[in-house]
Amino acid sequence: MYRISQRFHCPQTYWNGIMSFRGPENTPYTGGYYHGKLVFPKDFPFKPPRIFMITPNGRFKVNTRLCLSISDFHPDTWNPAWSVSTILTGLLSFMVETSPTLGSIDTSEFQKRQLALRSGPFNLKDKIFCELFPDTVEEIHGKMKERGETREGEQTATQNNVNSQGGVAGATRDGQNGLISSTLVNICVIIGFAAFAYTVKCVLKAVDNS
């Protein structure tokens, strides 16, 4: 799912299209909210737009012109029949690929998933994003609330687990301390018997000598 809003700037030369889209399902970007910009030349659709990503995503650099077959880096492969939706569909396709290109970066799937989780809060700091996509902003707030409740539950479970482990560790230490005390008592008893036996032996020897 994607949304796009036109932000006009210097119409004599080009105009900006601000885009917002969800990360593709069953990918490291699932659950992410991504924000980017299309800069169209005045003779669009006969020439391709510049493409920029604004939200950190782990696949493309932010605020950097992307070298894609649907961008202004490759006017020779551009088709004037392509629409804005075609561009966004192509961008999503390039996003899930791993082939390097100018403006791409190499990150692990774990890093991409972490950035997807942080993408919503990141976009909420962007005034233009919040102004143009109020429905998405509301959706992000809802997701953040859900995740907040989940994190609270996870923290409670983690604390309970720690407390449980602490109780087991305490019981183990108590058992070990009891074992040590019992061993020391036994040693003292043995030493006492040995001393008593030695004393008796000395007394008997003295009696025999007399």
UniProtKB/TrEMBL annotation:
Residues 1-135 form the UBC core domain. InterPro entries: Ub_conjugating_enzyme, UBC, UBQ-conjugating_enzyme/RWD. The chain crosses the membrane at residues 179-200. Residues 145-169 are annotated as: Disordered. Its EC number is 2.3.2.23. SMART domains: UBCc. Residues 155-166 have a biased composition (Polar residues). It comes from the Eukaryota. This is Ubiquitin-conjugating enzyme E2 J2.
